[in-house]
Hints:
It comes from Trichococcus shcherbakoviae subsp. psychrophilus. Residues 16-36 are annotated as: Disordered. It is a single chain. The protein has helices spanning 25-31, 42-52, 55-59, 72-80, 92-102, 142-154, 204-209, 214-217, 245-254, 257-266, 278-282, and strands at residues 8-10, 33-40, 64-68, 86-91, 107-114, 118-120, 135-139, 159-160, 173-175, 181-185, 199-202, 220-221, 232-237, 272-273. By secondary structure, the protein is of the alpha/beta class. The protein folds into 2 domains: 8-114 and 229-282, 3-Layer(aba) Sandwich (D-Maltodextrin-Binding Protein, domain 2), CATH 3.40.190.10; 118-222, Periplasmic binding protein-like II (D-Maltodextrin-Binding Protein, domain 2, 3-Layer(aba) Sandwich). The radius of gyration is 21 Å and the shape is globular.
Amino acid sequence: MAAATLLTVLAGCGSTADSATGSSTEEAASSESKTITIGSQSSDAQIWEFIADSEAAEKAGLTLEVKDIDGGPQLNTATVDEEVDVNAFQSWAYLQSFNEQTGAELTAFATTYLEPMGVYSDKYTALEEIPDGAIVAIADNPSNASRGLLLLQAAGLLTLTDDFDALGTTADIVENPKNLEFVEIDDTTGPRVLTDVDLALISNSVALEGGLNVLEDSLYYEEVSEDTKNNINILVTQKENAEDPNILKLAELYHSKEVQDYIAKEFGGTKVAVQKEISYLEE
């Protein structure tokens, strides 16, 4: 687990003199603090650790505690249980799936980026080379599995039902001209299975950890569009905190120039910034 960096949010209030002590409510308020804890993992945790130490955070009057928690369900559960105030790791589709499956009411309050999923292969250099009966590694979790199938459809390798959604499965394939065969994998192992399959659908965070750049090493990858908005990453908090002014500051902080310059340099342009209202995802 990454070491936590403590962040304090100074509360600001109006000033009124205290006739007995000569102190002011402004001075009292300035001594109060609120800690905002961010739960994240892998490259996202790295970004938030940078943000916690950034000039942008200092100018915003924020100090963050970053908790590196391994695993999406664990991160969401930690948020439900209020062990963290905000989490930063998941796509809109992943959040919808988690809430639907658990009955939780976690709420997105800001968009951050699209991290393109890619179609990778150690055996072929172009989609046109993919043979009949090719074996495709697909994630064993619902949101990334459906995302991978939509990517294959966009690449022209199969056709899905018209009502295919974020919980769609291989049972929703209506045309499979190359007779692709699917094997489920733990999607954190994507790069390691490339030698055992013809194709692998790998999320960018996992690809980066395996030394792959989706813009350079994949046969095909997602781009920001109406068709990929379910895959946009978000900042998430408890429903009752979604309008908290201190929480909302995190969105502006993430999209500050200092932070965006760091992300572009550190991750080779593979975290494509998306700054839209949550209503865009809900449409």
